[in-house]
Amino acid sequence: MLQIAVLGYGTVGSGVVEVIEKNQELIQKKAGDQVYVKHVLDLRDFPGDPIQERIVHDYDVIVKDPEIKVVVEVMGGINPAYEFVKAALEAGKSVATSNKALVAKHGAELLAVAKEKNVNFFFEASVGGGIPIIRPLNTCLTADDVDEISGILNGTTNYMLSKMTFEGLGFDSVLKDAQNKGYAESNPEADIEGHDACRKIAILTSLIMGQQVNFEEIPTEGITNITAEDIKYAQAMGRRIKLLATSKKKNGMVYARVAPFLVSADHALYGINDVFNAIFVHGNMLGDAMFYGSGAGKLPTASAVVADVIDALRRTENAPVEWKKEPLRLADVTEAKSRFFVRLKGDIAQAKAMFGDDMAKGWSVSNIIVDGECGFITNEITEKQFETITARSENIVNRIRLL
Length: 403
Ligand code: HSE
Description:
The protein is built from 14 helices and 19 strands. It is α/β, with parallel strands linked by helices. The strands form 4 sheets. Strands 12-11-7-9-10-19-15-17-16 form a 9-stranded mixed beta sheet. The mean pLDDT is 96. The site of L-homoserine has 11 residues, from helix 7.
């Protein structure tokens, strides 16, 4: 019997127990023996739940138990998850985690400890829920210079934006719905302000660059400024608003950001709706690839965690992952060029006076979506140019970048 422990009996933790029970036979075949959850660490008790007899409140019980081969960390947050994971690795146990905050902050260090102890630190579920993306980057795409990753990496906000687009629902009601379905973080601010997607793109960028990308340095905007009117403008343009996390290499520098974008109908990310995530990857040899699937929720996430457990149990050695601790200096995104959709209080003549040659001749609309406003698209300009042009105006209602 292969014994494991689970830290945290919340949404994902209970999912891990469920996946192991439901798919017991096939997991046994793949792992080489029966996988058994011996301990579950949680502050709470779960009277009436069959797991209750395996609940422990003291982490020492787990870390000092020589029978535990793999520790599953699904408690979330940095402390005490970091201390617990490090102690498990130092005790010679492999770890599987879904905790993106932990991986984004301490991934390089924890991988180094795992290497030193000849065990594994796996984190497939930390990005894209049940979608395989970490392992493909670490194994299948190692012959490529991956020069772009652009993804819909947060299920909650994609679910919310989809509901707002297709059902005309308001922000608060769709957020509640996403929380009830178990997609959102315990503090949903992490979803709607883009922090969750920011940590995920930091992890993916660290992996393609082979060194630490500090998430604090990635400019991040969420979807709290997106209104029903913005959605109507998007529809009038034949585009959809998506919260994207992007990382692009240009002239040896990496431009990374998280923000809402207006995605055109011919882009692969346009059709990614509901709670689904998709990660678009471009490699210099591969060309385009896209990884698509269930990006959040109890069982999809637990499925990826349990697959990591099986992988860890099958291995006798550390699987190498390139992720050095030295932080990478990111490029200044204010130098990056974009086209912007702008909503301006006033008419198109005022827009022309403001943007002049920087205003695209293509799409504009006045007074149809919102009275007293016009909406238009700029030519490709840098963020800096955009800020300079609009700095003194109080008439900008909103601006969203185009993809
Ligand atoms: N809150 C996250 C999301 C969960 O909505 O994508 C998966 O990381």
